[in-house]
Amino acid sequence: MSPRIAWILIATLALPSLAFAQVEEQIANAIRSRLEANRRNDMATWATFVADDMMAPLEGATPSKQSRIAQQQAWPREVTYFYGPLQDMKVRINGDTAIVTYHADQFTQIGGQTTSIHKWQIETHVRRDGRWLLLGVADGLIPPEPKTAKIDPALLDAYVGQYEWAPTLISKIERKGDSLLERLGGGEPGEWLPESETTFFVPGAAAGGDASRMIFVKDPGGRVTHYIYRELGGTDRIVKKIK
After folding, report:
1. Are residues 118 and 229 in the same domain?
2. 158: domain range?
């Protein structure tokens, strides 16, 4: 194969990747432009990046796009809603449809005071008349990482043992220095850190939206009887200590 033919073949194979990267950049730019228009309360420009049939959670009798425009236009001029830098953006394209995920701080400024919340955003975009438009959107809270508490090591020793989720699913709790180690079923062991003397969390889980806690409970005599597995917004699960 001649060098010229080899170069042409390599360039031809690279074209799809290049085109894909360009489409990803188009979508990312459309998202940033939409959010910037939102920050300026410029809903006319915002609307040009959103499909008329866009759907968001809790859509009522009024379609989501029209409801969103009416809501923001009703805000007094002292209210500003905006996003911080978009992080970990990922784009998956299938024909004229794209799924985009990213996370960011979302800020609300009212009367000189600014509050924020960190969320995942999941968006569906469609290509219509050569433009990428927002078709569907949902977000999810990313809770802050808890601070680790320093507790009496004797408390950790009291929590060591076996806890029953079901007769065939046993949680084995061991001590690992100033933390606990759980072995659940045949999975990899997971570390628990103390948030307080009775409450533990999985380090790093908050970044994925997991705000679950394990809360140890004792009887009047001071014996550990079970722990409560508590998920944000969920119902409690009692996991009894059996050994």
Report:
1. no
2. 153-241
CA angle, 158 then 231 then 204, to 5°: 75
> What beta strand segments (E) does 7-160 contain?
50-55, 79-83, 87-94, 97-110, 113-128, 131-141
- Do 124 and 157 sit in the same domain of this protein? no
Name 87's bridge partners. Answer: 103
State the Rg of the chain over Cα: 25
Q: 219: exposed, middle or buried (C-beta count within 10 Å: 0-12, 13-18, 19+)?
A: exposed
CA 89 to chain centre: 12
Q: Note the pLDDT tens digit of each residue in 187-209.
A: 789 999 999 999 999 999 988 88
Read off the pLDDT of each residue in 170-192 and give the average, rounded to a whole number.
Answer: 91
Q: What is the mean pLDDT of residues 158-181?
A: 94
